[in-house]
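Now for a sample.
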Amino acid sequence: MQYRVFASESVCSGHPDKVCDAISDAVLDACLAQDPRSRVACETLATVNRVILAGEITTNATVDYEEVVRGVLRDLGYVIPDYGFSVDEVKIDVRLHTQSGEIAVGVDQEGAGDQGMMFGYACRETSSLMPLPITLAHSLAKGIDFARSSGMLPYLRPDGKTQVSIRYEGQRPVGVDSVILAAPHDPSVSLAQLSDDLYVAVVKPVLAESGWTIPADAVLVNGTGVWHHGGPATDTGLTGRKIIVDGYGGMARVGGGAFSGKDPTKVDRSGAYGARYVAKNIVAAGLADRCEVEVAYCIGRAEPTTFAVETFGTEHASMQEIDEFAWSVLPLSPRQIIDTLNLRQPIYSQTSAYGHFGKAELPWEQARVATAVPAR
């Protein structure tokens, strides 16, 4: 993994696909809050003043799905009818049914609910042991959202994207090469004002917090020159369509499927979280500076069919020692991942924006030893 420049992107919480992820995870949390053993696979589609929920839910919870949807839209700032997608105007179509009995039998026997492979990754580029490009891209997206929701830049509208390119020497990040931002806004605001405001209110403070700087002329805002209309009214959203944003920004391999809307019996979610937990603990323990963990499953089988650790030549112990440590950190059967990381909690709404990894409060982000300070 030798890059001279590496770029990652993120999206704001009001991006159409993230609207759908937020709704799907809010439905999951609503079910888990009442029934921790709920089986949920909720997909969302959002378009012009329309939200469609579809999928499989088996639960003892009583959930007002329409109210869940409207609560999410309200929180995301879709409250103005002129957007073409707003909390009071949107029509909601609920098409949910129970989980297939053929899938349920494997889960009931404490096996995987599907086949597939998942990857977890960690490196010493940041204190969260996440790659720097995706970490900064998420921070910038969060900064744009805060500038809008706090009233700092009240002319911003929900939706938005960020992209950060990082210069590397070997495997070490040495500088921010460029930043690209896209943010819809009120037509009364000029592109020049938008660019200046985003640089001062978002880019400079976000990068400075992580110890980086970039000149204003290395920041590109709204590449076409104008963006007034965003959200699902102009770009249909779907659950699970931002899996690279949700993961490691392209720095690690991607396997399995998307995360949002799935309860932890789905190995797409729990397997990916377990793999991240193992990879992070390997790096945090100082056994390697960069680590990728792969697990693969067969439907109905409890133990993973594949388990592999790659350290890209950065290991500080033998691979046998690293493998033994990995298995001691977390046995990777679905049941053991769920129980060890306590995944039957309503904690998933906080993952639907700014990534599923690198957030210290989440159980799969806990390290058994103190996190090593990243090298500069």
Q: What stands out?
A: The mean pLDDT is 93. The first strand starts at residue 5 and ends at 11.
